[in-house]
From TrEMBL:
Species, as recorded: Puniceibacterium sediminis
Source lineage: Bacteria, Pseudomonadati, Pseudomonadota, Alphaproteobacteria, Rhodobacterales
GO CC, alphabetical: efflux pump complex
Domain CzcB-like barrel-sandwich hybrid: 45-199
PANTHER family noted in UniProt: HLYD FAMILY OF SECRETION PROTEINS (PTHR30469:SF15), MULTIDRUG RESISTANCE PROTEIN MDTA (PTHR30469)
Keywords annotated in UniProt: Signal
Gene Ontology MF annotations: efflux transmembrane transporter activity
Full protein name: RND family efflux transporter, MFP subunit
Pfam families assigned: Beta-barrel_RND_2 (PF25954), BSH_CzcB (PF25973)
């Protein structure tokens, strides 16, 4: 009675009533956990293809292999692209034209200085001086043109390396190889996939509940998941999705719980049982009778 009065004075909520009852030494009302069938799934499955077409030279991974983000999965034949990188690398590293033009420019500068002194003494014509000045300007412009060519060669090398890199297929995630579809020697189109990767950390626990339980579910709630493998494994999982669209045919709604799997020891694709800390209700008790 004392607990009931204290709760009414503070606030009529489950949380405050629990706190007050504990402080006053009263027993908490038991909330029955309800058990539901569920399925453990990877949080995502990605089909890995190629951004370019070509013939597979090697597929490094097989089904069931663990992979790390950035790990090489497969390579396409790339003899032409490798040769292109070598040619452009040689061009980008060639400094001989620029060095030769610098020498010519230095000579043109000396001629210009000499022509200027001769003109001051009247030992040469204005036309000869102008020719020396023009030769110097042309030499400077040619040096700038060679520098631009050098920059373009470096950029072309970068493009060639990027083209070559596109023929190496890397994993965008850490996970396991769920399936392998193509083998070395097969032609890869942009629509085809080579391997499928499953991301197993975290795992998603999918469960469908009757709509009568909808008002008892909220994001952040913790449920207990009982797995078949490893045997006798009971782990907490957090509710991360509560569907707001019901399935009218089955009168159910979907709930997703997130189950951490940092060491990737829990297999996906298995059935499970999840216990949610909610009150059990009779089917149809929360709806209307339209008949």
């Amino acid at each position: 009675m004392l607990c009931h009065l204290a709760v009414n004075r503070i606030k009529r909520t489950r949380i405050f009533s629990s706190v007050v009852c504990v402080l006053l030494g009263a027993a908490l009302p038991a909330v029955a956990g309800v058990k539901f069938d569920c399925v453990v799934q990877p949080n995502r499955i990605i089909a890995i293809g190629s951004p370019v077409t070509g013939i597979l030279s090697e597929v490094i991974v097989a089904r069931g292999d663990p992979v790390a983000k950035g790990q090489v999965l497969a390579r396409l034949e790339a003899e032409l692209e490798t040769a292109t990188v070598a040619v452009n690398s040689r061009r980008a590293g060639d400094e001989t034209s620029i060095e030769a033009q610098r020498v010519r420019l230095k000579l043109a500068q000396h001629r210009m200085t000499r022509a200027e002194k001769l003109l001051e003494r009247g030992a040469t014509t204005r036309e000869a001086f102008d020719e020396a000045a023009a030769e110097l300007e042309v030499g400077r412009a040619e040096l700038e043109r060679l520098k631009v060519q050098k920059d373009l060669a470096v950029m072309e090398l970068g493009r060639a390396k990027a083209t070559l890199a596109r023929r190496t297929i890397k994993s965008p995630i850490s996970g396991v190889v769920a399936a392998r579809r193509l083998s070395p020697g097969e032609f890869v189109t942009q629509e085809a996939w080579i391997v499928q990767l499953a991301d197993l950390d975290p795992l998603y626990v999918e469960v469908f509940l009757p709509t009568e339980y909808f008002d008892q579910l909220a994001l952040g709630q913790i449920g207990e998941v009982a797995l078949r493998q490893p045997p006798d494994t009971h782990l907490p999982a957090e509710v991360v999705v509560v569907d707001s669209v019901f399935d009218a045919t089955s009168n159910t709604f979907g709930v997703r719980l997130e189950l951490p799997n940092p060491d990737v020891v829990l297999p996906a694709g298995q059935r499970c049982k999840v216990t949610l800390n909610i009150n059990e209700v009779e089917p149809g008790s929360g709806g209307f009778n339209f008949e």
